[in-house]
Amino acid sequence: MAKSNDFCVDLWVDERLATLEPSDLWRPDASQALQRLRQRASHPGPSTNWKWAAALATLTIVGICLVAFPAPRVFAHYCLDCSVALLQSLSSPSSIHPELAPEANRKTAPDFALQDASGQQLRLSAFRGKVVLLDFWATWCQGCATEIPWFVEFAGKYKDRGLSVIGVSLDADGWKAVKPYIAKNGVDYPIVIGDDSLANLYKVTAMPVTLLIDQQGRIAATHEGVFSKDTYSSEIEKLLATEPAPAETHTDQ
Amino acid sequence: MFVNAPTEAWTTASAGETPFDMEAIFCEQYERVARIIARVVRDHGRAEELAVEVFLKLWHNPQAQGDKTEGWLYRTAVRIGLDELRRRTRRARHESLLRFLPVPTPEELHAAKEEQQRVRLVLTVIARKHAELLVLRSNGLSYSELAATLDRNPASIGTLLNRAQQAFRKEYVTRYGKE
């Protein structure tokens, strides 16, 4: 029975497919096709070569523009920073750093001593007992430019409650680039110039990186990239609300 | 490997260890390849263009040049034809969705070979391996030729063909009902 049914399906399908049979009157023109084939075979993929050449030329022009002219370079940098900032803002910051690190898990922030703009030495461990917002930034960093005005505001707003803001610039040009910038942008909290070893110590590979350090000198939060102003202020509020523990006697590093 | 001068190219191809006469293969197989494609693609002119593409692929693929050239040609022909058919069906669907498709004239409607259109549409919907098998079978390939062309075990061709036919019928009946 099954066989008979299969046989019918076989015929039924054959009948339908037979309708696709090209007319017997149609004869493909083999000689013309052969000529076409010879022609195609004798010109190996001009379009492909052309595309590669065009792509290479475009890349070269873009490269020259970026290297030779500062404006496109700055613009490209700006676009890159904006893209990074946008991506980071799209992803919920709270999902990345849901809360401040539990106290038991916090690690002591590596100490450093660097000169500020006025030539005075600034040592991180001297800020024990205060909440410290430590910002790694650079003058060319767009994300940093977004955050710095907030930090200026925080420095004034929470100063009396025990917040200190410290900016660590990683500009290769040092004070030459940083001093005009902080003067222009009204940065009134302490700024120091960091170097690669300090950046490595804090595992800074991209900027901005902002750390919140609790009253015991331990890292309570690390934010890489631009986060919302509210995220920072709520975390600062939480840290400031924490009762400072008695001063510890151990030394860092 | 590939040189610009046409004559040199054809000569070089036949100067290998296993001589491969592209022209002879072409003359021998072109019509059949074009017919396989024409079965799937309604437009004969397009079928001829695609047949040339098949041979061009063969020319660029030394591994296909040898004992199994015939099977390779049929397989490539049916695949290239089905690809074209699927592309056209997709485009027609998008155009009709966007209402860019011109309204067919009454003559076109009358002239349209409804059954052919149905069969072609079903071939674009069923699994590619089933469509390949059915088109090649309808081109008169024997079980052993089908096995060689599709690189299958000859013993399994009957079963595969049966499945392909069932799949075709099921899809056809679902779309157009029993006739």
Give the H and E element order of chain A. Answer: HHHHHEEEEHEHEHEEH
C-alpha end-to-end distance of chain B: 55 Å
Report the CATH C-level class of the largest domain in chain A. Alpha Beta
According to DSSP, the number of beta strands of chain A is 8
Radius of gyration of chain A: 33 Å
Main β-sheet of chain B, in a few words?
none
Task: Give the percentage of residues in beta strands of chain A.
Answer: 5-15%
Average pLDDT score of chain B = 79
Indicate how many domains the architecture of chain B comprises: 1
Instruction: Enumerate how many helices of chain A there are, as a single number.
Output: 9
- Tell how many strands the DSSP assignment of chain B holds: 0
Main sheet makeup of chain A = 6 strands, mixed
Task: Give a summary of the structure in a few sentences.
The complex is a heterodimer of chains A (253) and B (179). With 253 residues, chain A is α/β, with parallel strands linked by helices.
What does this structure look like?
The complex is a heterodimer of chains A (253) and B (179). Chain A contains nine helices and eight strands. By secondary structure, chain A is of the alpha/beta class. Chain A folds into two domains: 54-90; 95-241, Glutaredoxin (3-Layer(aba) Sandwich), CATH 3.40.30. In chain A, the strands form two sheets. In chain A, strands 1-8-7-4-5-6 form a six-stranded mixed sheet, with helices on one face. In chain A, helix 3 crosses helix 4. The radius of gyration of chain A is 33 Å and the shape is elongated. Chain A starts with a helix and ends in a 12-residue tail after the last helix. Chain B has one domain (19-176). Chain B is built from nine helices and no strands. Chain B has helices at 6-13, 22-40, 44-60, 69-97, 106-111, 114-125, 128-138, 143-149, 157-176. Chain B is globular and about 50 Å long. The interface between A and B is medium-sized, with 29 and 40 residues.
